[in-house]
Design brief:
The structure holds 2 protein chains of 2 kinds. By secondary structure, chain A is an all-beta fold. In chain A, about 0% of the residues lie in helices and about 50% in strands. Chain A contains no helices and 11 strands. The radius of gyration of chain A is 13 Å and the shape is globular. In chain B, strands 2, 4, 5, 9, 10 and 11 form a 6-stranded mixed beta sheet that branches. A 5-stranded antiparallel beta sheet of chain B has the order 1-3-8-7-6, with no helix packed on it. Classes of the chains: A mainly beta, B mainly beta. At the A-B interface, strand 5 and strand 10 of A face strand 5 and strand 9 of B.
Chain lengths: ~110, ~110
């Protein structure tokens, strides 16, 4: 069964350092999403890509977060500088355009900022 | 602003004790109501999509139903392996998925 690959699974970083997460969506899925999930909460959308274009980044803290999907396939989410409040699970998901069968999520990256 | 509220926050059942989880939603122009299962430390796993009031979908011991304001996830004769967090999400006319906080289900043997 096709999967969304994410790395690393866990990341511990010090406050003010830079950190990056990588996502490889299911082959053929044009739409890619980055979500942030704080413990005990539902996922919140950070950024949505259609192929290589950003279609929604209204909830992305652009002063410290950036995301790219240069060739319309895999994607990188970066935080610089990291803050204590950024500790969360960062989830990547992908879907076909109509997403009728839902979004397929990766296993996520658990970020701890110390 | 689209909103999704799930209740209860946590539910503890004995094996075989059937129950229901609730998801109330307020979205403009519903384009799908989604149910996911999430195990600890993992990403959400897709269960169902419902599109119109009166629609029902089933998978093993789970059945999801939809009204104009709510969705229910019915769990019949649950087993310990059904223990997980169940997330509800609504997609509105902007095609953005809004999640609830989830219901943590624990099924004791």
């Amino acid at each position: 069964e096709a999967e969304v690959a994410q790395s690393p699974r866990y990341k511990i970083t010090e406050k003010s350092q830079a950190v990056a997460f990588w996502c490889d969506p299911i082959s053929g899925h044009a739409t890619l999403y980055w979500y942030r999930q704080i413990l005990g909460q539902g996922p919140e959308l950070l950024v949505q890509f259609q192929d290589e274009s950003v279609v929604d980044d209204s909830q992305l803290p652009k002063d410290r977060f950036s995301a790219e999907r240069l060739k319309g396939v895999d994607s990188t989410l970066k935080i610089q500088p990291a803050e204590l409040g950024d500790s969360a699970m960062y989830l990547c998901a992908s879907s076909l355009v109509d997403a009728g069968n839902g979004y397929t999520f990766g296993s996520g990256t658990r970020l701890t900022v110390v | 602003e689209d909103q999704v509220t799930q209740s209860p926050e946590a539910l503890r059942l004995q094996e075989g004790e059937s129950s229901s989880l609730n998801c109330s939603y307020t979205v403009s122009g519903l384009r799908g109501l989604f149910w996911y299962r999430q195990d600890p430390g993992k990403g959400p796993e897709f269960l169902f999509t419902l599109y119109s009031a009166g629609e029902e979908k089933e998978k093993e011991r789970l059945k999801a139903t939809l009204t104009k304001k709510e969705s229910f996830l019915h769990i019949t004769a649950p087993k310990p392996e059904d223990s997980a967090t169940y997330l509800c999400a609504a997609r509105g006319s902007n095609y953005k998925l809004t999640f609830g906080k989830g219901t943590l289900l624990t099924v004791n043997p």
